[in-house]
Amino acid sequence: MGDTTRNPVTWLGSPAFPTAAKTALADDQLRRNLKHATGLIRTKRAGAVAELADWEQLRLSGEAIKDDVLANLDTYLLRFEESVTARGGTVHWAKDAAEANEIVLRLAREAGADEVVKIKSMATMEIGLNDALQAGGVTPIETDLAELIVQLGNDRPSHILVPAIHRNRTEIRDIFKATMPGTEDLTNEPVELAAAARAFLRRKFLSAKVAVSGANFGVAETGSVVVVESEGNGRMCLTLPETLITVMGIEKLVPTWQDLEVFLQLLPRSSTAERMNPYTSVWTGVTPGDGPRNFHLVLLDNGRTDTLASTVGRQALRCIRCSACLNVCPVYERTGGQAYGSVYPGPIGAILAPQLGGDMHDKHAASLPFASSLCGACFEVCPVRIDIPSVLVHLRAKAVEAKPRYSPEAIGMAAMSWVMAGPRRFHVAQRLAVAGRLLSRGGKIRKLPFPGSKWTNSRDLPAPAKESFSAWWKRTRG
Amino acid sequence: MPGGSGPVADSHSRDVILARIRGALGDRPAPRPVPRSYERSRDFPSVLDLFAERVADYRAIVHRVTDPVEMIRSTLAGKRVAVASDAPPDWLVPDVTWLREPLTNADLDTCDGVLTGCAVGIAETGTIILDGGVAQGRRALTLLPDYHLCVVRADQVEGTVPEALARLEPTRPLTFISGPSATSDIEMDRVEGVHGPRTLEVLIVDGGTA
Fold first, then answer.
1. Contact at CB, B183 and A194, closer than 8 angstroms
2. Which residue in A369, A453, A470, B15 has its CB near the most CB atoms, within 10 A?
3. Residue A407 binned pLDDT confidence (cut-offs 50, 70, 90)
């Protein structure tokens, strides 16, 4: 039954990107918050990357290691399963979101938990785990500061690394004051806001029986799992509860322990622009006397194998979720993440969400590959060299193929090919186009009549020249 | 609700996913050999100077000492401090109330701090790595207290990330610590002090006592 359910990687009922972008662009506060935050992180990242003379070599290695993982994914998954099991962990396999949610809910109930503490995890956000747990009578508590802000504000995430990037400190203070007991006198100083979260969550950490996490990396050779974080909420979740459930996308593997030496350099500098993030935890199965007594690992497909089948698109599975591409993207900086209508916003989201969702007939998903100017900044900063512009173009073709045969675009293109097939027709058309100047003002056409309005809804059209090139040639040289 | 996915459903999905992967890789992509032309080690003028500087960059407090005991006494005197059961006896100076494992979470949550050693340090990134070995204890020990004093011996400090990882046993529970607990979640600006210890103090021991 899971095969026919909708993939929650995109949010149900999201408008197509151009519509959502229009709303977002009208929000001045949002644009100010985003410009400030992305500007800051761009500059810092450039500095952190410039410190390493061998950055390009590290990128090339990172790309090749991930390509090897994808090309031999079955082998590495089986090796990983064997290593985790040998060290006392239990491995589960989930075809899709519904199945993964069912497994986690069942395990949480079996552990007798009515509450679970959660580490920020893109995989669990992608499958909509929180809603599934809540519906099953288990309350999920997000413990990452930004996730907590999103959860308490009854909001949606807008960034891979900093889900509350669209909120400034004053908005965050207001959310805390409205939802956390004893915060009446809270100021908007980040140090105070962090302290409020610390006090609020400490009791939860000490009483939780079950924690749910994602994973940044899984090492096939050893069965080790790696979580990279800043605040220490991850360490709390990975260490204190008796049962730990980790949901991990099947593409998150690296073959060997040594391979981490590449990714532990690439990820922090690309992500938070630090030489190293404050905390990285590595655990392998269960260690007696230290940490959880039960460790469950849920391996998640949810559209990844479909993505793997595309020779152009599969490189999206190299992604290590650093979010550098969001921070440099001119489109993201202006619209913010929520306009993408998916847990994966920005350039990587525009290629990942439609592929994981696997349905280009969905108008919203099909609009995402067009949310780009193809400037290429995302490719330049990507630590695993995902050629996002090429995948965007490839997916645009898929989106067009999925459209009905008689869409305005298809009719327009068919008409164009008829016109261009004969020189006489072409000359007539050119003269007609010059007449199109009548619609312009200041050298631009802002609104064409239907079906041309489909084009001008999302962009201005330069007015045609007064004279076509061939007419000019005839007049001056002919 | 569906009747739950027991091990049977799980193992069915395992077969399905593996079959999907093999189907998706029908083109048999042959990846290039992995290039490893990045630098495994770098020519730092002084690894120890760099380590001290980079740890301090995270707003951790750093001291260079030849013998840690005097500094342990002056830093911790009068406090209630947790230690691993195998902490070196000479660290346990009399002016401090030592809380030795086994300790409860409540003990750790209410003590003044924790004193540990470490396994490996990374100079380039200012990172300390704990592996649960001698004088380090289990992971919760360095997590719940609000203050962490960590003793790092000169011979434990490596220059780069690759050099440090090569010294570790990956199947031990590992914690990489780079400065005090922090967040960049508010306007992408780093703020020290969220859930882990809000103060990290590091004693770099150089000379004699190794």
1. yes
2. A369
3. confident
Q: Which range, of A406-420, B48-62, B177-191, averages the lowest pLDDT?
A: A406-420
Please say if the pLDDT value at position B168 is more than 80: yes
> Per-residue pLDDT for A52 more than 80?
yes
The whole-angstrom separation of Cα A248 and Cα B135 is 33
- Cross-chain residue pair A93–B13, CB shorter than 8 Å: yes
**Domain identity same for A293 and A421:** no
Name beta bridge partners: A294. A243
State the residue range of the domain holding A27.
Answer: 17-304
The answer to the question of residue A237 being in a domain is: yes
pLDDT at B3: 41
The distance of B70 to chain A (nearest Cα, Å) reads: 28
Looking at the complex, report in whole angstroms how far the Cα of residue A95 sits from the nearest Cα belonging to chain B: 6
Cβ of residue A277 closer than 8 Å to a chain B Cβ: yes
Query: Do A281 and A144 belong together in one domain?
Result: yes
Task: From A269, A288, A304, give the residue that closes a domain.
Answer: A304
Contact A283 B2 (CB under 8 A): no
Q: Residue A71 half-sphere exposure, CB side, CA atoms within 13 Å?
A: 14
A232 at B interface, C-beta within 8 A: yes
Q: Which residues are CB-neighbours of A315 under 8 A, at least 6 positions away?
A: A67, A386, A387, A391
Average pLDDT, stretch A421-426? Answer: 85
Instruction: For residue A162, tell me if it sits in a domain.
Output: yes
Total tally of structural domains belonging to chain A: 2
Query: What proportion of chain A, given as a percentage, has pLDDT over 70?
Result: 99
Which domains does chain B carry?
47-178+192-205 (3.40.50.10420)
Instruction: Average the pLDDT over each of A150-154, A403-407, B37-41, B99-103 and give the range with the smallest value.
Output: A403-407
Rounded Cα distance between B193 and B147, Å, is 10
* Interface pTM, i.e. ipTM: 0.94
Q: What are the chain B neighbours of A67 within 8 Å (beta carbons)?
A: 29, 31-32
Average pLDDT rounded to a whole number, residues B173-184: 93
Cα-only R_g, chain A: 25
Report pTM: 0.91
Taking the CB of residue B26, how many other CB atoms lie within 10 A of it? 9
DSSP A223-254: TEEEEEESSSHHHHHHHSSSEEEEEEETT-EE
A231 part of contact set with chain B, CB < 8 Å = yes
| A190·B30 Cβ contact <8 A | no
Of A94, A190, A289, the CB nearest to B138: A289
Q: Is A61 on the interface with B (CB under 8 A)?
A: yes
